[in-house]
Amino acid sequence: MSDFTGWARNATDPARAASKPEALPGLRVLEVCPGHFGGMVAASMLGEFGAEVIKVEPPGGDPARTYAPEGISIGGTGLPFLSEARNRRFATLSLDSEEGRGIFRALAKAADVIVTSESAAGMETMGIGYTALSAENPGLVFLSLSTYGSFGPDASRRVKDSDILCQALSGAPHIVGEPEGAGPPKPHEAPTRLGNWHGWFVEGLWGAFGVLAALNFREATGKGQFVDVSGAEALMKFADYNITWMHTAGRARERVGNFDPAVFPYTYIRCRDGHTFMAAYNDEAFESLMTIIGRPELVKDPRFATPSLRVRMENEKALLSILEEWSGNLTADEILKAVEDYTSKKSGPGAAVVTGRVNRPLETLSEANWRERGCFAQIVDPVYGDLLLAAPPWKMTGTPARIKSVCRPAGADNREVYCGLLGLSPAEVDSLSHRGII
Amino acid sequence: MSDFRAFAEAAFSLSAISGRPEALSGIRVIELATRIFGPATTDYLGEFGAEVIKVELPLRGDLMRYVAPQGFFWKEASPAFLPLNRNKRHVTIDVRLPEGKELFTRLADTSDVVVENLRAGTMDEWGIGYRQLAARNPRLVYAANSGFGQWGPYSRGRASYDATAQAVSGFSAITGFPDQPPVKAGFWVGDYTGALFSAISILAALFARRRTGEGQMIDISQAEAMIRTLDWTWPYAGLTGRDRRRAGNQDVMLPPSGIYRCADGFTAISARDGEERAALDRVLSGDPGGNGETLTPDRVAAFAAARTREEILRISEEAGFSAAPVVGGRDQYHDPHLRARGTVWELDDPLYGRIDEFGPCPKLSESPGRIKWTAKPVGYHNEQVFGGMLGIPPEEMEELSRKKVIGTWADVPGARPPGPEREKPAAKPGAGTAPR
Fold it and tell me: Same domain for B264 and B316?
C-alpha cells in the first residue's frame, strides 16, 4: 500500500507534468464567447489538455473582462476572467462586418472545434453558422452553449445566457436552502443559488465532454457535428433523481436545508470551531457513529432503527440535536480524529462514517494537503502579476493537464494568429486594425 | 434563421436517434464502484455508446441500491439508484476472493477503461489495481475516483462523500446567506461534478491513446474537482488575503442579477451587460429613457414582488433584459421543451416498462446520446457477460456460483427484480446463490 502511494505520487505528481506529452496537441479550438464564463470553462478544459485555443474577442475586449469583484481588476481585466483565461492565444475580430466574417470563416476552416455562446441561429443568418462552416470543413465540431439549447419550443426565447438563469431553470436552487417556516418567510427561506458560478461552470464542463465525445466519433468517421448544450440542462443533470422521483412516486423534491431526504445522518453539524460534515447512513455506519458519540443504545431507538426511519424529517431533526450535543465541545479536527480512530479498525460498511470540516476558502488554502498535491498554482504573469489559480484537478501518469500561461490582453496575439495562421501580411493586419475589424 | 431551424429539426429529431451511430461505440468500460461518484462517471460514458459493465458484490451489490428517498422503492428498485446506472450490464464478482480477482482481471484484459471509487490503494492491495492490470493491458485507461486522491496527507484512510467535497473545498462556505450558516447543496453536487471531471479526462486519455498507443492512470479527487470550480474565489483570496463572502441570492459579479421572490414563487433576473442593465433601468424607473438611478437589489425586489413569474418573463422579453422562473422537478417533468429535447427522456425499459429519467445532456447531431435501458437487479447480466462475452462454460459458472464468487440478487428491495421475475430466479442461469 505505501509502495502504491509512493509509486502513485511519483507517477502523477503535477510538478512533473511539464516534461510529459499532452493529450490533445494539434487540436485547434476557436472560442467565441463574449461575456460568457461557461464558454471560457469549456475551452479551458480542452486547453489544459493541450489543445491550441484561440479566444476571439470583439475589438476593445471581451465584456467578461469587466466582471470584477469589489471592482478589483488588473490591467483592465477582472478576477473571474483571469481565473479562466489560461493556455490561450488572444485575437480580436469584429463579426459585424462582412470582411470580419470572411476572416472568421477562414479561421474556422483551419479549426477543429468552435466553442460559442452566440446564438446558433443568429450566426447562421450571418453566414457563419454551423451549416455554412461545416460545408467548408466537414470535420468541424461546433459547440453551442445557451440557456435553453438551440432547438425545442423554448429555443427562441431571447435571453443572454448567464449563470443565474441556468441555475434557476436547472432545478438546483429549488432544492438548496431553507424551507419556509411558520410566519412570514425570512429572506434566507428561499431557493438558494450555489455561491460560485456553478451553472456556468457545469455548462462548460458538459460542453467539453460533448466536444470530446464528438472528436472520438470524428476519429472513427472523419465527420464533425453540432453539439448543443443548454446550461440549464447541464446543471439539471446533477439534480439527483428529480425526474425519476416524479415518475415513480409522483413527488417533487423540496428544500430541506442541510438535511437530506434519502440518507441520514448526512448533514452539517455545529462544532466548536464552526461546522463539519457528518455522514453515517447505512445501518453499520450508523452503529459505528453511535458508538463514537457514546450513545450505542440509540441504534435500537424506535426513531432511528432503520434507514427509512432515520430519513423521517422529525427524526432527522432529533438526531441532529443529539449529534450536536456531542460535537458542540469538539473542534472539527477532533471530530475527524475520533472518527478515524474508530473506523481505521473497521472495514466494509461499518467504516462508512464520513466527516470533513466546512472550510472557508482561506482554511482550505491553509491546509498543506492541497498545495502538496498541486491543486493551486501561484503564477507570476508578466502583465497581470502574481496570481493564485486553481490548477487542473487531474493527476495523470501519461498525458497530464497543465497551466502554461495565465492571460494576455485582448488582441495581443493578433499578429501571430492572422499572419502565422492565415498568412496575412503585417501590413494587412495593420490595415484591419485601423479599420476596427481587429 | 429558418435555415437553422430546418437543420436543427432534422438533426435533433428524437425519433431519428435510435437509427444513428453512437459517439463512443466500441469502448468497453468496467466499473467497480459504489454510490455516485464512480457510477455517474460511467453512466455519462454509457449514454454515448460506451459498453459499460458494472461489477458489484454478489447478493446486495452497490450500496446505492438502498438509498431510497423517503424509504420508497419502485418495482423493488430505488428511484435514486436507477438514473445513475443506465445502459450498463450488471454483473457480480466478489473481487476479494482469488477466483474473483482472476475473473475481474479477465474482464479488464478485454477493456479500454476501468473506473473505480474505492479508498485509495485498495485495488492495488487486492492485486487488481492499475499497476497489475496495465502490466497485462497497457492500453488501459484507469480512472481512480476518490475523495482526496491516491497520494498526499489526506489520501490515507479518509472516506469521502459528495458533501465532504462541498465542505472541504470552500464551496459551502461561499453558498448561502451572509447572516446564516454555510449551505450544503441539497443534491449530490460534489459527486456529479467530480464524475464529470473524471469522464472528461477519460475521453482526453482515450484521445491521446490513439496517438501513443498507451493508456494511463488518472487520479481524480472530488474535493479537488470542486476546488477547480470556484471561479474567482482563489485569485481573490490570493490578492486580498480575504475570504469571499456568502452573497445569498445575489450574483455580485453581475449586479443586480439574482434570484428574487415574486407573487407566485421565485424568478431569476439577469443583466449581463450595459444593454440589459439599461433595459432594466427603463422598466424599474418607468421612464422610456431610464433615469440612471442605481439598479439596487431592493428596487428589483420591489418590482418582482408585485408580479408573477410569467409577467416578469414577458416584461423582460419585451424590454430586453433576461429572466427565468425558478423551477423544480415537477415543472421539469411536465415541461414540453425538455421532453422535445429528450432531456426528460421517455424510456420503455424491457424489465420495468415505461420510466422517464434525465436524458443525455449534450445533444450531438450525428452521434447522439440515448438511454437504452435503466439499471437492473444485482447480477442480471452475469450469463450474458460471463457466458456470452468471456465464453465461460456453464459448468465453470456453476462452480463460481457455488464458491460465491458470482451470484445474483439477495431477496431484498433494491437488489431484486420486480414481481414476476423474482419468483423464478433459478430460471436464470448463474443464479445459484440467489434468494434465501
Answer: yes
Report how far residue A321's alpha carbon sits from residue A267's, in angstroms, rounded to the nearest whole number.
12
Tell me: ipTM over 0.85: yes
Cell numbers linked to B349: 425499459
B40 assigned to some structural domain:
yes
Are B393 and B270 part of one and the same domain? no
C-beta of residue A203 within 8 angstroms of C-beta of residue B158 = no
Which domains does chain A show, CATH number per domain? 2-238+379-434 (3.40.50.10540), 266-359 (3.30.1540.10)
- On whether the CB atoms of residues A72 and A81 are closer than 8 A, the answer is no
Domains contained in chain B, number: 2
Q: Is residue B368 part of a domain?
A: no
User: Which of the residues B44, B115, B117, B203 would you substitute to probe the A interface, choosing the one with the greatest number of A C-beta atoms within 10 Å?
Assistant: B203
Domain presence at residue B364: no
Residue found by looking up cell 421543451 in the block: B337
Q: How far apart are CA A354 and CA B34, in angstroms?
A: 15
Residues B269 and B188 in one domain: no
| Interchain contact A90–B (C-beta under 8 A) | no
Q: Region A177-194: what's the mean pLDDT?
A: 95
CATH number assigned to the domain comprising residue B217: 3.40.50.10540
Same domain, B46 and B142: yes
- Check whether residue B37 and residue B166 sit in a common domain: yes
Residues 142..161 of B with a Cβ closer than 8 Å to A: which? 148-161
Residue identified by cell 426528460 is B344
Angstrom distance (rounded) from CA A264 to CA A254: 16
pTM across the whole model: 0.97
Q: How far apart are CA A220 and CA B321, in angstroms?
A: 43
* Positions of chain B with pLDDT under 50: 1, 424-436
pLDDT digits (tens, 9 = 90+) for A330-370: 999 999 999 999 998 888 888 899 999 999 999 999 999 99
Q: Count CB pairs under 8 A between chains A and B.
A: 603
> Domain range spanning residue B281?
258-327
CA A38 – CA A217 distance, rounded (Å): 24
Q: What number of other Cβ atoms are within 10 A of residue A6's Cβ? A: 11
Per-residue pLDDT, B159: 86
Its sign, for the CA torsion B144, B148, B150, B156, is negative
pLDDT tens per residue across span A287-317: 999 999 999 999 999 999 999 999 999 999 9
Q: Is B387 on the interface with A (CB under 8 A)?
A: no
How many Cβ atoms sit within 10 Å of the Cβ of residue B428? 18
Chain B residues with CB-CB distance to A160 below 8 A: 270, 272-273, 276, 322
- Inter-chain touch A397–B199, beta carbons under 8 Å: no
Same domain, B43 and B158: yes
Q: How far apart are CA A145 and CA A125, in angstroms?
A: 17
Note whether B138 and B285 are same-domain residues: no
Q: Is the Cβ of A233 closer than 8 Å to some Cβ of chain B?
A: yes
CA separation for the pair B234, B193 (Å, rounded): 18
Alpha-carbon distance values, A387 to A384, B283, B362 (Å):
8, 40, 33
The DSSP secondary-structure symbol of B389 reads I
Q: Is residue B340 part of a domain?
A: no
Tell whether B155 and B214 lie within a shared domain: yes
| Cα–Cα separations (whole angstroms), residue A193 to A235, A317, A424 | 12, 24, 47
